[in-house]
Automatic annotation (TrEMBL):
Name by which UniProt lists this protein: Hydroxysteroid 11-beta-dehydrogenase 1-like protein
Single Gene Ontology MF annotation: oxidoreductase activity
Function as written in the Swiss-Prot or TrEMBL entry: Unidirectional NADP(+)-dependent cortisol dehydrogenase (in vitro).
Record bears the keyword Disulfide bond: no
Signal sequence interval, chain numbering: 1-19
InterPro entries named among the record's database cross-references: 11-beta-HSD (IPR051253), NAD(P)-bd_dom_sf (IPR036291), Sc_DH/Rdtase_CS (IPR020904), SDR_fam (IPR002347)
Matches recorded under PANTHER family: HYDROXYSTEROID (11-BETA) DEHYDROGENASE 1-LIKE B-RELATED, HYDROXYSTEROID 11-BETA-DEHYDROGENASE 1-LIKE PROTEIN
Reactions this protein catalyses: cortisone + NADPH + H(+) = cortisol + NADP(+)
Domain of life (superkingdom): Eukaryota
Statement: the UniProt record of this protein carries the keyword Oxidoreductase: yes
Keywords assigned by UniProt, alphabetized: NADP, Oxidoreductase, Secreted, Signal
Subcellular location: Secreted
Family listed: Belongs to the short-chain dehydrogenases/reductases (SDR) family.
């Protein structure tokens, strides 16, 4: 069933275009690591960064889908596009992804965290196993990626973009582990924003809170 929702792309770029001083040329040559880039919101974000001339490292679970997105980004004008297939359910993967991006791009100006995982097939949605898996994919991997990329973002005075969900602050039935993970995202990055401000670290944090959506309607809306 299709429901009306906020699109991730609109939420992300609204924060830029709302300010009259935003210059799209500022993203030309920017070094971007984008997760969850193989479909939906992440795919559309990759195409917009490509049009603006950013250098990209794209990651997602499925290599074949990533290769398609990489090819499209090159056609749209991205000067450099690399990809690394990665399963964020594995705790050792975030370090490999960030190191790959740093090696390929020489640093980061943007870290865009957009990947997500639903309850694995064959697992009860509220079981401890499912909750542990969901927290690793939808929360702990975000924390790991941020921690690993933050030194480079600090050097570049870069930006951190986190795609979250309305199911964090407004939980609904039959989504308890997923809602818990998204609630944790809001708390962690809200606190981190304050910590960076106190420490005079010039790294912007943008939270994009999406409603429920299906991939087809999201891409069509963008």
């Amino acid at each position: 069933m299709k429901v009306l929702l906020l699109t991730g792309l609109g939420a992300l770029f609204f924060s830029y275009y709302w300010d009259d001083n935003f210059d799209p040329a500022s993203l030309q040559g920017a070094r971007v690591l984008l997760t969850g880039a193989s479909a939906g919101v992440g795919e559309e974000l990759a195409y917009h960064y490509a049009r603006l001339g950013s250098h990209l490292v794209l990651t997602a679970h499925t290599e074949a889908l990533l290769q398609k997105v990489v090819g499209n980004c090159r056609k749209l004008g991205a000067p450099k596009v690399f990809f690394i297939a990665a399963d964020m359910a594995s705790p050792e993967v975030p370090e490999r992804v960030v190191q790959f991006a740093l090696d390929k791009l020489g640093g980061l100006d943007y870290l865009v965290l957009n990947h997500l995982g639903a309850t694995p097939a064959g697992t009860r949605s509220r079981s401890v196993q499912a909750t542990r898996w969901l927290l690793q994919v939808n929360f702990l991997s975000y924390v790991q990626l941020t921690s690993l990329a933050l030194p480079s973002l600090t050097d570049s005075k870069g930006s951190l973009v986190v795609v979250s969900s309305l199911l964090g602050p407004v939980p609904t039935s039959f989504s308890s582990p997923y809602s818990a993970a998204k609630f944790a995202l809001d708390g962690f990055f809200g606190s981190l924003r304050r910590e960076l401000d106190v420490q005079d670290v010039n790294v912007a944090i943008t939270m994009c809170v999406l409603g429920l959506r299906d991939r087809a309607s999201t891409a069509e809306g963008v």
